[in-house]
Design goal:
Elements: E1 3-10, E2 31-38, E3 47-57, E4 77-90, E5 107-120, E6 125-136, H1 142-153, E7 168-184, E8 188-199, E9 202-208, E10 211-215, E11 230-245, H2 246-249, E12 269-280, E13 284-293, E14 303-313
Parallel strand pairs: 1-8
Antiparallel strand pairs: 1-9, 2-3, 2-14, 3-4, 4-5, 5-6, 6-7, 7-8, 9-11, 10-11, 11-12, 12-13, 13-14
Amino acid sequence: MVSFSLLLCSTSFAQKVDHLSSYSDFKNEKYFRLNYDNDLFSGTDQNYTQGFNFELVAPFLIDNPINHLFFKQDECSVRYGISLEHNAFTPADFEKPEIQVGDRPFAAAIYLKSFIIAVNPERGGRFTSSISIGIIGPAAFGEEMQTGIHQVTGSQMPMGWQNQIRNDLVLTYQAGYEKKLIRIKDFLSFNAQANLLLGTLFTKALLGLNGGFGILNTPFEIGSSSGKLKLYAFVNPLVNFVGYDATLQGGVFNKSSPYTIAASDTERIIGELNYGIVLQSRSFFLQYSRTTTTREFTTGDIVKWGGLKAGFSF
């Protein structure tokens, strides 16, 4: 669906791979999807350098005991999912072994996520909730992953991972609501959205607009997607209001990281623009997106990356 969405959120979308927005909805009871971000899509190799998310939605996940912690209305149709997500961050001069004072620290996080997508077609509402648990630090193997990719591609090797954010807990609870405002047949729609995310990795609020056009999906309706091919574009400008970012400031509990960005140097208001194109049918999903944000700390630069999503129903 191409949509414009007013977004207020305390943010899981900053948990960089966003697979729960309505424009990324793959409306099937059972599907698997790979979500992959990399800054090489935008011709850079710094800041948010890579992220992936392996996502499974299936009816048997209704028995996951974590689901009892999620809010959902009785009249909603609910889909249940789990995912494994990994994010990695580097300074601009990642090939230097010394700490890059004034740039962001090396950081990596990996976490398991349990989530639900609940749709109320009568009210035109869409709830999403998730709980993530994992670790930020060397145990997230960011160094091994980036080094392996650079070896395969023949790129310059990263040398500063010994200075990365140290091991600490990732624990996040996210709850969101998206409200359909206007839909013009299958060609244009406008939605309002609110999200709350509280956790040890990111804590933020976002306010923005999400929109697009094309042959749309139907994320506010119940049932599997029709066999009709859908092709649409989306654009999603946001403003982020930042409370805490462990990839810059270090973990909440472990304060032994060799280098972090001071809270006073962390930007509290960050502009963000997401845009892309989606092609999907009943059996497959493809999406390409690009993201640009303003600097995340006072001595930082504009951040850019691209993303691919590919999935199939079964």
